[in-house]
Every structure is written in C-alpha cells, then in structure tokens.
C-alpha cells in the first residue's frame, strides 16, 4: 500500500474516532437538565431521577465487560460501527416514548452503544496512531468533553423552543454521521478487521497473554476511573437539583452542568501530554483532590454564594478521567493489553460508579438534605486517591497480570 493510501486511511479513521468521541456522552447530558420537565409530564419522582442518573454507568459497566469479547470475535472496527448504530436507534426512539419504561429501555440501548464506544476507541487509537499517541488522545478526549458540554448547554433552550422530545432526538444525528466513516474503514480493510486480529498479532510476536484482574495496575486504574465516574455522574444528575433547591432557576442549573463539562476542556487538552511527560503523575491527582474538597464544601454550605466558583472547582477534579483514558495506553505494551485494560477499567469502574447517582438521591430523600450525599462523594475521593497511587506508578500491565505465553 502506498504512503498516500496509508495517510488517507488514517485520516478516515481519525474522522471516525472524532465523530464517535463526540457521541459518547450525548445521551447522558442531553437528558439530565430536562428530567424535572420530563418527570412532570410522564410522571416520576426523585428516585426515578436517580435511576436515570445510574443508568449510564450501569450500561457502561455491562458493555465494558462484554466489549473485549466482541472485539476479539468481530474486530474493533466492526464493533465501533455497531456501537454507533445502537446509539442512533436508542436516542431517536427514546424521544418518542410516552412512558417511563420505554424512556429507560431506549436510553439503555443508546448508552449501551456508548459503553461499547468507550472501550474500543482507546485501542483503536493505539492501533492506528501509536506514533501520535499524546496528540490523538488529546483530540479524542477533547471531543468527548465537547460532546458532554454541548448537549447540557443547549438542552433547555431547545426544549423551550421545540419541546423536550426534539431536544432529546436531535442528537441521533451524531452517531449516524459517525457510522459512515466506520463503514469506509471496514470496507477498506476488506475483512482484515474480523476475528481476533489483536490476539493473533500478540501471539505471533511472542508477547505474553494474561488476565487484567491479576494486576495491581488494573485494580488501581479501575479504582481511579470508577470513583471519578461515580462523582462525575452524580454531579451531572444532581447539580440542577442542588442549585434549584437553593433558589436558582432551571435554566441556571442546566448552564452549570454545561460549565461543569466545559471545565473538563482544560484537563482534556493538558492531561494526555502531561501523562506522557511525567513518569508518575500522582501529584496531579492530589491537586484534583483539593479541587474536589473546595467545590464540595462550597456547594454544600453556601451553594449560591459563589456557584460558578464551586462548579469550576468540582469540574477540575475529574481531570483524573482523561488521565485514566491516557494511562490505559501508557501502562500497556501491546494492543491486547490496551483492550484488556480498557475493558477491565471501564467495566469494573462503571459497575461501582453506577450506584453513585442513585445512592446520592436515596440519601437526599432519606435525610431531606445534602450532607450525607456529599459524605458519599468524600468516600469516593478517598478510594480514587488510593487507586490513582497504584495506577500512576510507571509500570506495565503485562509485567504483572499473571501472563502466560501462547504459541
């Protein structure tokens, strides 16, 4: 294959990765600012709101565990295409539902597609852009942040202008657009994406194959990623409620969710390069802990005194999220290791994180206050710090995952 053909092929893959990354959070943040309005029309309470908040992490967990098997059987590219199709169908259909169950089921379908995308994109970056890992990781994570921020920012204005169904359904256009370049990539590979390509390449090179759960690197990554996700999705779900109970408007609550997402741009731009330049980035994690403590304290004790400052501080805390995604590739030697670590980290991490938004809401309903819900988040910060200490150490998964040689 000529150099020009290779460059064109990589460009198509890059476009596919960018559009997929833009899709990976739209089903989450397009609905959270509208839950009060939707609940009033359809009929559900704060506990059901907590279920909607829990659903993303639950589906990300299930498909985080299953996706590595799908990738070995069908290939990363085909699985990425299937993820976009699932997401498009789920987003488009849920906007037409008139009952809580239908809204939940098709939200789950969309989020399942996003969960698949979460897992396959990092190893795809490693496969096609191992020579530009920091740059492409920065682009990918930045696009995830854009896809997180934009729906939250425009959800309420779109709903006011066209209704909440249009506000939800319009985001189906993104996964449809993302599916098109993946079709081109699959066609250009002429079937080479099928079966266990990564496993075959690993075995052929004599690299060891093991189980991620045997490695302290994987457990540290899962703790770091999982607790960051628990905090993040709890905030996505409950920031509007916390602020409206303190006297803010619904529109202001949606704007603060968008601000929370926008602050992630700082981390998305800086974290991948920082992780590649610093052997052990754990001091950055400690800075994130300080931001969490400041933001949580302000939001709990004086929410309307300086809400923008509190949200900015809390928004800087999840800098450990792009750090985790970057470390998936930096703490592995092979594509097989990257896929295994991505699946374990996101599967286990999201499984633990899914209790966050629901338990946050249950604690609020049980105590009629926010003290115990924020105590839950402080426990998550402590666990995240311990996990990050293990994940940030400069070592590789393959050196500690109970590996065996295949031949």
UniProtKB/TrEMBL annotation:
GO terms for MF: transmembrane transporter activity
Protein origin, superkingdom: Bacteria
One Pfam family it belongs to: MFS_1
Domain spans labelled Major facilitator superfamily (MFS) profile: 13-396
Keywords of this entry: Membrane, Transmembrane, Transmembrane helix
Membrane topology classification: Multi-pass membrane protein
GO cellular component term, pick one: plasma membrane
Location, primary (coarse class): membrane
Regions crossing the membrane: 51-72, 79-97, 103-121, 133-156, 168-187, 217-239, 251-270, 282-302, 308-328, 340-364, 370-389
InterPro entries: MFS, MFS_Cyanate_Porter, MFS_dom, MFS_trans_sf
Compartments in which it is found: Cell membrane
Protein name: MFS transporter
UniProt organism field: Rhodococcus spelaei
Classification lineage: Bacteria, Bacillati, Actinomycetota, Actinomycetes, Mycobacteriales
